[in-house]
From TrEMBL:
Positions of Mg(2+) binding: 21, 115
CDD domains listed in its UniProt record: PolY_Pol_IV_kappa (cd03586)
Protein name listed in UniProt: DNA polymerase IV
Needed co-factor(s): Mg(2+)
Lineage, top ranks: Bacteria, Pseudomonadati, Pseudomonadota, Alphaproteobacteria, Acetobacterales
The keyword Iron-sulfur appears for this protein: no
Active site: 116
Catalytic activity: DNA(n) + a 2'-deoxyribonucleoside 5'-triphosphate = DNA(n+1) + diphosphate
Subcellular location: Cytoplasm
Top EC group: transferase
Gene that this sequence comes from: dinB
Family: Belongs to the DNA polymerase type-Y family.
HAMAP family documented for this protein: DNApol_IV
Organism: Bombella saccharophila
Amino acid sequence: MNATPKGNREEERIRRILHVDMDAFYASIEQRDNPALRGRPVAVGRAAGRGVVAAASYEARAYGVRSALPSHKALERCPELIFVPPRFEVYRAVSAQIHDVFRRYTLMIQPLALDEAYLDVTEQWAAYGSATAIAEAIRREIQKETGLTASAGVSYNRFLAKLASGQRKPNGLFVIPPQRGAAFVADLPVERFHGVGPATTARMHKLGIYTGADLKTWSVAALRQHFGSSAQFYHDIARGLDYRPVEVNRPRKSLGTETTFARDVEAWESLAATLEGIVAKLIVACEQKSIAGRTVTLKLRYAGFHTVTRACSAPFPIVEGAVLRRMALELLRSFFPLERPIRLLGLTISALGVRDEVVPVQMGLFEE
């Protein structure tokens, strides 16, 4: 996205958005700080008990090890995997360094986690020649000051900038200019779209929607019949459009994840096992975003799409996975016997606060 000729007002109004994403952030810090780990498959997390992978080095990812994967499964895939305990205070300190670099170029910053953020450089790009030049400078300064690499995407909206940052990982830069946006999306599988998860991907595939070009053939009205309130978003991104601004200091109200079953489920064992996986993902997400919450909400969607929720709150922010797991399972147990089989299971944590300010609770009251 180079500088535009003077007088071309339409081009001048185009937004310049960056998505900067650190490469295997937690694992790369561990490899940076411990030379013995360099070039070896590393997982940040705990190997014992119900541990999960919080992050994996690229050497570990080659074996299929990913964040939120149960530790025992990670070791099955990669027996040579080296587990190191997380050091979130270090990760937060490095994240602060990275944000100091961002602020040299713009104050329009929307953090997504400790290791990634959107930046709006619409007002600054001309001074540096292009938004791409800013992205290059940011990546260069991050590596110089932290010893870590970052990948960046440059485009005219958030959706495309995030897609672009993943194109040349690790340590890459990719640009999607306005004239290429729609064509880029057309060739892309829908499972690559940020905001289209595995369950939605499966539903789209059943409808014959496999690429952006397939999605583009559907009207908003037709999409709404299958995807409800998300229809407009899917309609827009299939055309390379995304009107969401970079939201500075946006307060996060909740964090959640859910699973849609390929077949309706009613057995306690299957639902409980799925819920434990959801809890593991949610704990990792809270740690990555340095937040903790007090209120846990369980969502069930029955066959026939009737949805119900139940919630409970703790008197303290929840930082221990065992506490969240117990609360989630108690909420699930309260629905038994079920009215009918379950189509979707989801868990959300809210009443959020900054994790740094939380004093860990004594676990004695919550032992199983």
